[in-house]
Design goal:
The chain is mostly helical. The chain has one domain. Helices cover about 70% and strands about 0% of the residues. Helix 2 packs antiparallel against helix 3. It is elongated and about 50 Å long.
Length: about 160
């Protein structure tokens, strides 16, 4: 299903998160020497984009979805993901993620994004009217206005390398 324009800003941020996950997956196993660089990049991504993204979902999107009883279990699951992911982001801030933790983080973040895109967004587009989606889009834009619009580039240790 084509993504409604009201949800596109969240979808763009999902693309950024998935790109990070793909890079972590392709770099795994992460060398101990590169771990600090990866954790720094994850922390930067959280501060510049994901903290605002989670807040927008929790303040605007999830309450709108809770109007539909069928979506309540999904919202509860997504909130549990947010809690888990926030804890991993906090660990990246304190540089306490291990290489296996980093891999688990990337898998969980990718699964979370796909759940939102494939289940929540799709269903909301079916359940909400065009006017309701437009209102939702305005509210989401307000919540996301402080998101940094910079392109986060990998550093030397976290960029993808050609296969040997």
């Amino acid at each position: 299903m084509l993504r409604d324009k009201s949800l596109i800003p969240l979808s763009h941020q999902h693309q950024h998160a998935l790109a990070l996950c793909v890079r972590i997956d392709r770099a795994s196993p992460i060398a101990e020497a590169d771990l600090a660089a990866w954790q720094g990049e994850i922390s930067q991504h959280f501060r510049s984009e994901i903290t605002f993204h989670f807040a927008a979902e929790e303040r605007v999107l999830f309450p709108a979805a809770r109007r539909f009883q069928e979506l309540t279990p999904l919202i509860d699951d997504l909130l549990a993901d947010h809690s888990f992911l926030r804890a991993r982001f906090a660990e990246s801030e304190t540089a306490t993620l291990s290489p296996p933790d980093l891999h688990t983080f990337a898998q969980r973040l990718a699964q979370h994004v796909r759940k939102e895109e494939r289940q929540l967004f799709e269903r909301l587009q079916e359940l909400l009217s065009a006017e309701e989606l437009a209102t939702l889009g305005v509210q989401l834009a307000e919540q996301l206005k402080d998101t940094e619009q910079a392109c986060l580039l990998p550093n030397q240790a976290t960029k993808l390398r050609a296969a040997p």
